[in-house]
Specification:
Blueprint: H1 24-29, E1 34-37, E2 41-44, H2 45-61, E3 69-73, H3 78-89, E4 93-96, H4 103-113, E5 117-121, H5 125-131, E6 140-144, E7 159-160, H6 161-166, E8 182-187, E9 197-201, H7 202-217, E10 230-231, H8 240-243, H9 245-252, E11 255-258, H10 264-274, E12 278-281, H11 283-290, E13 304-307, H12 314-322, E14 326-332, E15 339-342, H13 354-361, E16 366-367, E17 372-376, E18 391-396, H14 408-414, E19 420-428, E20 434-439, E21 444-446, E22 449-451, H15 453-460, E23 466-476, E24 480-489, H16 499-513, E25 523-526, H17 540-545
Parallel strand pairs: 1-11, 3-4, 3-5, 4-8, 5-6, 6-7, 10-11, 12-13, 13-14, 24-25
Antiparallel strand pairs: 1-2, 8-9, 14-15, 15-16, 17-18, 18-19, 19-20, 21-22, 23-24
Amino acid sequence: MPVKIVQATESAYPYPLLIKQLLLTPLATAADQEITYQGEVRYTYRTLRERIGRLANGLAGLGIEAGQTVAVMDWDSHRYLEAFFAVPMMGAILQTVNVRLSPEQILYTLNHARADVLMVNSEFFPILAEIAGQLESVRTFILISDEAALPAPPVPMANDYEALLAASMPDYDFPDFDENAQATTFYTTGTTGNPKGVYFSHRQLVLHTLAVATALGGATGQGRLHREDVYMPLTPMFHVHAWGFPYIATMLGLKQVYPGRYQPDMICRLVAQEKVSFSHCVPTILHMVLSHALAKETDFNGWKLIIGGSAMPEAMAAAAFKRGIDLFTGYGMSETCPVLTLAHLDSEQLKKTPEEQAVIRAKTGRPLPLVDLRIVDARMGDVAHDGKATGEVVVRSPWLTLGYLKAPEASEALWAGGYLHTADIGNIDPAGYLKVTDRIKDVIKTGGEWTSSLQLEDIIAKHEAVSEVAVIGVPDDKWGERPLALVLLKPEQVGQISEHAVRNYAAHAIEAAGVSRYGVLLQVRFVKTLVKTSVGKMNKRLMRADPDALCL
């Protein structure tokens, strides 16, 4: 029989899921809560709403209309937070520009997205000077700066950001419109070819905000986000909306701390000074912070920290735990808005030793509400949830990108079979925890068997001399491929330990862990650096291309 559709009365408000609705609760319950930039600029949520209105009026005065694109090149700041709201609330599209891409790639993304306005921090004037003559659609530039003395801009600026706000009225009547209207766009990190554009609607961003807040608020205690937390992003706001957490923090009315460019001394100072209690980052950022001299005297107790973007070594989880950091994994990707899973521990698991907990904290986690996550074989059949059987991670949820911008063939491949394909390989254990064991493109085929590079990295990272490690597959006449560990030593260990010693340690640990027997074919080379993407992930494609160039 046909499904009955409930009809609304003529006067009922249909309540579209728009980003502007996320401001209702904080303005009603936390209007005097504080937002700070680097501990120097401070204002309240009441002022945030006024500045959002001023920015919208200023952009409207420059001719921005619904459907047009406003691009931003800035570090993590209160200005970026204002743009997160003002631009999509007008019905325009916010493009968050990855400032760590090459100038050629930045130019490509601005032209491909057909950006109309570019708000640009003066620190990026050299990049702007290089690309300005080739910009196809940007017609208006707005200056962003923290400095009083500025270099001459390479192009005429329509206005300064603060001057634009000061000259604009705080009241803006943000309209209702279709919740499926595009709100944001940004581009993947572009490790192969040109970056791909992904896009999200108001409805998707609101549902992602609600689901992540529900999952974090439903935790028994470990990793729980609540109204008295102090939030600071350590994932760039240009990358997947800083994993969506500025929207979550704003909806909950949290105190928010924006650090600007990620500098370990600034991060340590803000954690201590502002009592930061909730953040998120990739492993390399945490490694950078904890390796800084100031970290030794910084109290990190009570700091809840979600690690994502790359696999978290168990050794890192155990070491952070000993510093008082509640470290746990989250999982997602640019195409998924991004959060899909969180590795929360239940009460019984919290009774385990730090080393035992680290095994769980380093897993990829359990699905959020509304996430339909599967592990499938090549025919899209489900594999057993026994913690051993592996397959590709595919997923559905209401906040996944519907495709790549202007790339229909790639979009069809992304959604083959009606599920978004992550290109990650993993397993699910009986308790429902996903563990990603590798990227499809990074798994190593040795002697006809698949060997997980992430599992080998986790074993090697536990050696006391190892600072960071990346395992890649290199060609081998006999085995097809052979795992090669590129090891960055701790500074005090350089010259004190041999590659042979690390290889022997790894071979014994690999055998004891029951990893594929081909894992013991591992080679070890010490390197002076490891190549990373623009958002701090290991760039194994480039490392495979010329590993010798990295070696000591």
